[in-house]
Amino acid sequence: MSPNGKDGSKSKAPERKGAARLREKRKDRVERKKRLKELRKLKEEKRAARAVAVAAMAAAVAPAVEKSNERQKPATMQSTTGDTEKQRRKVIDALERDVEELSRLSAPTGEQTAEIERVRSEIQELKMEFYRHLGPWQRVQLARHPQRPYTDDFIRILFEDFSEIHGDRNFSDDAALITGFAKFHGRPVMIVGSQKGRDIKQRLVRNFGQAKPEGYRKAIRAMKLAAKFGKPILVFVDTPGAYPGVDAEERGQAEAIARNLLEMSRLPVPVIVTITGEGGSGGALAVAVGDKIFMLENSVYSVISPEGCATIMWRDAGKAEVAAEALKITANDLMDLKLIDGIVPEPEGGAHFNHEATAAALDPFLSLALDELTKLTPNQLLDQRYEKFRRMGQFFA
């Protein structure tokens, strides 16, 4: 039969498919190199922009010029920085997808394996730099990440023999707050913590982590029970704030929060608080009057959300990024202001990537704090707690 006949065309079909696959692989390789080149360019541009900004600030001597620069900075520099961060995040995500696709190859060659490892090392370096220089607004987004570890995750990893306490003995049980006894390295403790929920069904049950009056009354009931038996209290906070609904107001939301502040200030047992995600407004403070207050690296703690602040100050919730910068809500800011006692490092990429590593990082903070506080008498604890909160904000006087 002629080579141009039916049999000849069949024999050439596999060759065409093989050539097409090679072309696709070459195309993918070229695109990856292009993305890496773009990312390096973005990095260089950002470094250059920082250098220019530092030089400009150093050159500014006149007070009038400095004030003018400060007024213009939030509107110009932050928007540019935000766009750059989004581009870098997109490029990193694209590179991670490429690595996943390459890793699925059944029998990668030596050249392909070397390329996979090279891209992986590039991604690790870029992610480390990306998360090291996050701004306040980016940390707010991480603090709200739906996969961050919640109270039930810390209970599962760090504690044993957890026995939950339900209800406030007055109205109902609030699922937005978890309370109960457990053992921490063999030591009985009381746990009180916020719980948001992973999917929409859980979030509705947990009311998105926003407690109602019965939640705060349940929390203080559990804390008083711990005080009665002389057991330390460990609190985990991750809430956007107290629930602002009409039903909550009808049942005395403000009174319940105020009552908690009063009662927690005079509990004669150690109280250790950890802000694990969002520490929002009085809803967070209602369970956060403690002898030691720690924050996860990418958590936030504030009297108001950035969106709420922007709405009040500028009548524009879109300026939340500017508000986040002004509010000083990150762990580093609050450590500088001496409002917290320690920052718990998160695993690379954030706590949502590795719950076990996050809990392992928190473990020594809790252990050392318990060892330190349990040596104090009840009167020493109360005096130290009183002085701690009296010192807050004195630099404004």
Report on this structure.
- The protein is elongated and about 85 Å long.
- With 397 residues, it is α/β, with parallel strands linked by helices.
- It has 15 helices and eight strands.
- 59% of the residues lie in helices and 13% in strands.
- Helix 1 (6-59) packs antiparallel against helix 2.
How are the SSEs ordered, and which strands pair?
Blueprint: H1 6-59, H2 63-103, H3 110-132, H4 136-143, H5 151-158, E1 160-165, E2 177-184, E3 187-194, H6 200-206, H7 213-228, E4 233-239, H8 246-250, H9 253-265, E5 271-280, H10 281-285, E6 292-296, E7 300-302, H11 306-314, H12 320-327, H13 331-336, E8 342-344, H14 355-373, H15 378-391
Parallel strand pairs: 3-4, 4-5, 5-6, 5-7, 6-8
Antiparallel strand pairs: 1-2, 2-3
